[in-house]
Amino acid sequence: MKTVVMDLSYTFKSAVQKALGHPLIIGDPFHFCRYIYWALEGVRRRVQKAFHPYHRKRCKRIKHLFQKERERLDDKQKKKVERYLELSPDLREAYELKEHFRQWYQEAKMQGREGRMSEVKQGLYAFYRRVEASPLKEFHRAIQTLKNWQTEILNSFAFGLNNGFIEGLNNQTKVIKRNAFGFRRYDRLRNRILLHHQFKHQTFGVG
């Protein structure tokens, strides 16, 4: 095996290198992007503690809107987000940092496909500097993780690989198991999963 796409786990990385002879490791985009969204969520949870109970509850209810792409918000949603950004400079800063990262990520995907990896790297460095100029410790911790895994993260843009298909299968499998309220026999669970995914002639092992 020459290439492995994985989450940002040192334990998994060590095991992969030991078992597979140091293959090329690619950081899965879903897993490295979520550190930025976790940082935003951490700031929201921290600052809303100082809000009036009414606003604290309302802010929590719209937490998904802070995570959503700014351009996909309708006018009503934009007003809701702006209301709470006005209540906290830290929350506004966190929101802008999230948007900066998201813009870099979208541009980096295109640049990576075109082989412009130096631009991908420079854009990432610019994001680091933006965060380092910010007082938000949540984002400082997030970019430290990105720095620790920078090679693997940049590989994801250079090679355009991710675990999206496998993650989708895993999520569907979890739903099957949950909806069945448990299977007593593994072979029945296995057959149900294979039937759902229509793997009549699978070329790999399951379980």
TrEMBL record:
InterPro entries: Transpos_ISL3, Transposase_DDE. Pfam families: DDE_Tnp_ISL3. Residues 2-193 form the Transposase IS204/IS1001/IS1096/IS1165 DDE domain. This is TNPA. The gene is tnpA.
